[in-house]
Amino acid sequence: MARRTYKDKMPRDWFLQNSFYVRYMIREATSVFIGLWMLNLTFGLIRLSQGEAAWNAWVALQSDIWMIEFSGITLGMALYHTWTWFAISPRAMPARIAGRKVDPALVARGQWAGFVVASVLVLWILL
């Protein structure tokens, strides 16, 4: 008698049945937008190396309404990704100082403080 092969009965929308998995899948989907934004910046660097006319064409492309919308969506995705990462990381890798476990909320506040300081520093340099 031949054995029957195993067939997984997991539905395609299995992650929609649990809100934790939905948030996880949204978090993972944010990486697609970040990757596309990095491709855009890489393309800008390539255009910069091709001369002033190519660079000005890329800069003009960035002022189109669809690129502004894409940038806004990507910023929202990046902030969501940051928010969830700062919430997960203290629990995924608990910090210890002198053998004692550090409160995860304290670690998350430290991460947000570093984020704010880095953001202000970048804005100060750019403006």
From TrEMBL:
Q: Which UniProt keywords apply?
A: Cell membrane, Membrane, Transmembrane, Transmembrane helix
Pfam (any one):
Fumarate_red_C
> What Gene3D superfamilies has UniProt attached to this entry?
Fumarate reductase/succinate dehydrogenase, transmembrane subunit (1.20.1300.10)
The cross-references to InterPro entries, in alphabetical order and at most eight, read: Fumarate_red_C, SQR/QFR_C/D
Where do the TM regions start and end? Answer: 21-46, 66-86, 106-126
Q: Which domain of life is it from?
A: Bacteria
Q: Give a Gene Ontology cellular component term annotated to this protein.
A: membrane
Q: Could you confirm whether the keyword rRNA-binding appears in this record? A: no
| Protein name stated in the entry | Fumarate reductase subunit C
